[in-house]
Every structure is written in C-alpha cells, then in structure tokens.
C-alpha cells in the first residue's frame, strides 16, 4: 500500500465528505488532522518538495493509488454506537 497516496486520498476526501465546521466534533477533529493548509506560506515553504500536487487545483480529481478509504472507515466507526 502506498502510504503517501493514501494520505493524499484522505486529504482530498476530507475536503469533500466532512460536515461543515462546527457541526460535528469528530469531523472537526478529522478536518484539523487531514486538512492541508496549502495557502499558508509556512506550509508551502516546508512541504513544497513533498506535496507539490496540492498546488494543482485538480489534484483531487485524479485517482489515488490507495486501495481503501481510511476516512470512510473512520467515519463509519464514528457512526457505530459503542457503549
């Protein structure tokens, strides 16, 4: 499994599938973890060589080489009621 591609997939899925900020604590936590601050200069300076793909606005339109959706798995766990 390609870990880098799975991280890219999670970041792209977080943009699309998480509830708006303030609606769900679990989603807000996931957003904080899996949102790339691509417009912040510190992020761009530090990560430019590793995540150049994020500068392309169509980055999330391509298929990532990751066989599972870790975000969907986490969201499914959040829906299950564990007592």
Q: Strand portion, in percent?
A: under 5%
Number of strands: 0
Q: Categorize the overall geometry.
A: globular
How many separate structural domains? 1
Overview of this structure, please?
- The protein is mainly alpha-helical and 83 residues long.
- The protein has one domain.
- 51% of the residues lie in helices and 0% in strands.
- The chain has 4 helices and no strands.
- It starts with a helix and ends with a helix.
- The relative contact order is 0.23.
- The mean pLDDT is 78.
How would you summarize what this structure contains?
The protein is mainly α. Helix content is 51%, strand content 0%.
Write the layout of secondary structure elements.
Layout: H1 3-17, H2 25-34, H3 41-47, H4 70-79
Features:
single chain, 83 residues, mainly alpha, 4 helices, (diamondback moth) hypothetical protein, DM4_12
